[in-house]
Amino acid sequence: MLLLYQIGTPLAQLPMTPKIVIFLAETTMSRILLSAVTLLVLLLTGCQVILEETPQPLPVEPIFTIPPTPTAAIEPILEPNLEPTQVRLIHALPTATPEPGRPFAVLADAPIQTMAFLHTDKGCNWMGVAGQVFGYTGDPLTDIIVIVVGNAGGKRVDALGFSGMSPGYGPAGFEIKLSDTVAPGIFWVQIFDLAGRSLTDPFSFQMVGGCEKNLTIINFRQQQPNYRIVLPLVQR
């Protein structure tokens, strides 16, 4: 007996007769066979099934840290002792604030630099300082000690002279040789009486080192009328 049922009738409502069971089994097998045939056709026709690969993590490269290079200790380079090329101040007279009431002073026109007119035959082989010492009224004063210290071309200078010993510069003239050759230098000059009392403050002057200006003229004058200068005692 063949029973007809409406399409869409739930399977649970169908009576499970042997023929129906066989039909369902055959239908399932047909579906499995159809799937197998379809896969075989795909393989035979060259179609490939592309399976998406799971992305693999990128390899992590190790990071190498370069150790710091040890810095070598820098040793100071000691320069050799070189001869100085500039004028050095050696054994200079003190340059303190001028003491008020000094009995003598340098004339306002000092220093005057000129050619050594009394030593023209020596040319550049002579350098010095000269001048005169005057009293309060302008009269020449002799036997005044003139001391010069300083440096000429890197050489120390300590020199002494007396007023009245070089009449070529005047009745109370003095002359002090500073060097056998012209050279730049710096000096201090000061005058004293015969008792060793300073009559002026140290006066600074410089030499430029030229052959046409190898003589410096410096004159002194008394500025206190009542100051008594110690003079040498002359006995007959």
Topology:
Blueprint: H1 18-44, E1 104-106, E2 112-114, E3 127-134, E4 145-152, E5 155-162, E6 173-179, E7 185-192, E8 203-207, E9 215-217, E10 220-222
Parallel strand pairs: 3-9, 3-10
Antiparallel strand pairs: 1-10, 2-9, 3-6, 4-5, 4-7, 7-8
CATH superfamily of the domain at 104-222: Carboxypeptidase-like, regulatory domain
Major β-sheet profile: 6 strands, mixed
Can you name the CATH architecture of the domain at 104-222?
A: Sandwich
Helical element count? 1
Mean of residue pLDDT?
Answer: 75
Alpha carbon gyration radius: 61 Å
- The percentage helix is 10-25%
Q: State which percent range the strand residues make up.
A: 15-25%
> Remind me, CATH topology of the domain at 104-222?
Immunoglobulin-like
Describe this structure in words.
This protein is of the alpha+beta class and 236 residues long. Among the domains are: 13-44; 104-222, Sandwich (Immunoglobulin-like). The chain contains 1 helix and 10 strands. The strands form 2 sheets. Strands 1, 2, 3, 6, 9 and 10 form a 6-stranded mixed beta sheet that branches. A 4-stranded antiparallel beta sheet has the order 5-4-7-8, with no helix packed on it. A hairpin with a 2-residue loop joins β4 (145-152) and β5 (155-162). The longest helix has 27 residues, at 18-44. The N and C termini lie far apart (193 Å). Residues 1-5, 20-24 and 76-99 have low confidence and may be disordered.
